[in-house]
Amino acid sequence: EADIYQTPRYLVIGTGKKITLECSQTMGHDKMYWYQQDPGMELHLIHYSYGVNSTEKGDLSSESTVSRIRTEHFPLTLESARPSHTSQYLCASSEWVSPGPEAFFGQGTRLTVV
Amino acid sequence: LAKTTQPISMDSYEGQEVNITCSHNNIATNDYITWYQQFPSQGPRFIIQGYKTKVTNEVASLFIPADRKSSTLSLPRVSLSDTAVYYCLVVKAGGGADGLTFGKGTHLIIQP
């Protein structure tokens, strides 16, 4: 069982609210990722980090922001939630080793903005 | 990173062997081929990874021809619980400051 945790699992929130989705891993992994996925649709990489104080935008433009102050923690923040942000958000982590990294995923946060 | 192409969907029956082929024509020398499985409402789960020839574990086999421009994930004797989305990824060895990008995947449906 992977040691990567996301909270909350489900969140229903009103438009305009600020929210932070939490992601923590206890595996000491250097790399962490955030994905957005609508039901039955493709996984889109929105942010990733390859170490403390490093963050990069992914393939899909997102209004969210991330931070990586500690190795184990990679929170995602939406300053002002909108209905278009309704989706499932998945966090993952992997080592920076050779050969290519196996990523471990959290259980996800299903966000609904009303 | 090399772009991958795989069938959008496949159907099979319980007890059959299922082979899902992925094309990655632009694979680089130091790239590895990795497959993930995703059930509804869950995050993807690593299945198998290889560089060349054949790799087998308790879940699946991965066949990679000499030119490495494609790979085939083989699931022996599938059951209903193998219904899932299967993703083929090409990842760079040694990590690097790259994201991990998933394509559309193959929706595999197993019928009784």
Structural features, described:
The complex is a heterodimer of chains A (114) and B (112). Chain A is an all-beta fold and 114 residues long. Chain A has one domain: Immunoglobulins (Immunoglobulin-like). In chain A, 0% of the residues lie in helices and 47% in strands. Chain B is an all-beta fold and 112 residues long. Chain B is 0% helix and 48% strand. In chain B, strand 3 (31-38) and strand 4 (45-50) form a beta hairpin. Chain B starts with 8 loop residues before the first strand and ends with a strand. The model of chain B has no long low-confidence stretch (mean pLDDT 92). The A-B interface holds A 30-31, 33, 35, 39-40, 42-43, 45, 48, 50, 54, 56, 58-59, 88, 90, 92, 94-108, 110 and B 31-32, 34, 36, 38, 40-46, 49, 51, 87, 91-97, 99-105.
Task: Itemize the secondary structure elements and their pairings.
The complex is a heterodimer of chains A (114) and B (112).
Chain A lengths: L3 E4 L2 E4 L5 E7 L5 E7 L6 E8 L2 E4 L7 E2 L9 E3 L8 E8 L9 E2 L3 E5 L1
Parallel strand pairs in A: 2-11
Antiparallel strand pairs in A: 1-3, 3-8, 4-5, 4-9, 5-6, 7-8, 9-10, 9-11
Chain B lengths: L8 E5 L4 E6 L7 E8 L6 E6 L2 E4 L4 E4 L5 E6 L8 E9 L13 E6 L1
Parallel strand pairs in B: 1-9
Antiparallel strand pairs in B: 2-7, 3-4, 3-8, 5-6, 6-7, 8-9
